[in-house]
Amino acid sequence: MQSLxxxxxxQFAWIQNPVVVARQALAGVSNGMLLFLIASGLSLIxxxxxxxxxxxxxxxxxGAFAAVTLTGLVPEGLAGFAGVLLGATAGLAVLGAAIExxxxxxxxxxxxxxxxxxxxALVFILGDAVKLIWGREDHSVSMPEALSGSTQALGVTFPxxxxxxxxxxxxxxxxxxxxxxxxxxxxxxxxxxxxxxMLGALGVNTRRLFTTVFVLGAALAGLGGAxxxxxxxxxxxLHVQVIIDAFVVVVIGGMGxxxxxxxxxxxxxxxxxxxxxxxxxxxVVLTFALMAVVxxxxxxxLFGSPE
Amino acid sequence: xxxxRTLAVLAALVAAALPAALSDFWIFIAIEVIAFxxxxxxxxxxxxxxxxxxxxxxAFFGVGAxxxxxxxxxxxxxPEAAFALAPLAAMAAAAAVAAxxxxxxxxxxxIYFGMLTFAFQMLLYTIALKATGLTGGDDGITGLKPPGALxxxxxxxxxxxxxxxxxxxxxxxxVNSPFGITLRALKANPRRVQYVGVDVRSHQLxxxxxxxxxxxxxxxxxxxxxxxxxxxWLNWTASATPIxxxxxxxxxxxxxxxxGAAVYVVLEVVISGRTEYWPLVMGVxxxxxxxxxxxxxxxxxxxxxAP
Lengths: 307, 307
Prior knowledge:
- The structure holds two protein chains of two kinds.
- Chain A is mainly alpha-helical.
- Helix content of chain A is 73%, strand content 3%.
- By secondary structure, chain B is an all-alpha fold.
- Chain B has a domain at 23-235.
- At the A-B interface, helix 5, helix 11 and helix 13 of A face helix 5, helix 11 and helix 13 of B.
């Protein structure tokens, strides 16, 4: 018994060190913001189109690779970096429009297995396309100098880029909220997550709504990939893990709920960050255990509604 | 029914004559076809008959593969006894896991059922990855060898046939029994079946356990032939395989998925021998299948009729 307490005490010794706790919290929150960018699109697409887009991680990966290419084309500095972010977002929006109008649109009425297979096919195609275009080796993107240093806050030294990610994530979340709650389009989107048929019956052009939702989701994934580019290793396997994290977030937050995706993304980000300290090697199991518990206790997610 | 019988007799004749005509390499591929045929058919008991789309069926294939491998590697029995018990251990382990996963998953229907199976699969995948002592972690279990003459492909082929053949027969009898007919009725209209007095969930759970157990058997038959088990067999990308096979062959006939498995395995061997971009080619094939040939291969010569 005493030895168990001792083990736990050493295992959790970091709790007494505020600097470590603050750093992990920051890393968790900033990773949570990146997760939110992917998960919010995944959640919106499921809510409106009723399709689980397994290729969403691949879109994120394309955003990161787009940042690799664009960084080489623009001048250094903040303006160039902003250009990279915009370019990746726009590029993925175009790819999203092509996928929705060219492929997804044909299978909305098909059985689930066909929708699933189509997005799986996209995973395989996009995963290999990355290898064909950018090669098999890992790439990295350097961050603009203004964001590359460290910042003192609360008596702790933080990497500036992590703080920037948190700020950017909050801004994007606010923008999404305004889009969904303060525009006509947002009303349609929220109505579609409740009852698509009724929305169509009321004369809303659901066809165009589907396209715009998918384009927004793809653009968010692209932006997320470009923002993540300076802090991840950009290789052809990036999407396999990313989609799983995003999926966990969406299931915990509730399919179709953007607010739920925000809360769950922070939760998963923090669980990952502190799980690594508390249970090294088992942190991945923690997030899945969290998801399993949510699925069993509240299958529609924390912020979702029962079907 | 008649077409299935013709197909079965034809398949049995071809299967019996094969080893004489093939090199060891192609006998090995034929064993793979036999294992995956059982995998695809057991998966389709859920999808084609029960209308339940599992996104996580690779979990049971993988659990069976690990159980069979551990029986041979670590049980401490004499090699012959361990090998004889391996298929039983695989079925028992996969059935036990399927009972737990199914217990929670059949509470929901449609796409939410799929997501639950997906979530549990990822949980099992991380366990396979992290329980290094049991599973070998990332390295998997390698160097498995069947005892005595069974190590020769032509002999193992007979063993695989003698295992999978009866298993397919059991499944065939099952789907045409009152149980199977109720299962089909559940696919068509669960509410009505409930009104008749059938316990829907326990019926679906029973189908899920049977399907999982036979998927596990398929996993063990394949693992002991290939000599390896890897955690990637349980990863989410692996769960596309039985879906592709079932849809490729046609979900509305009993042996359609087996035909799909044969075509898929042979395509993989031929194409991945010529290009490293097999996933890309497979993605394009899946796209063509989904968009152009929704009834699958068996649908090409039969235009109507449910299983």
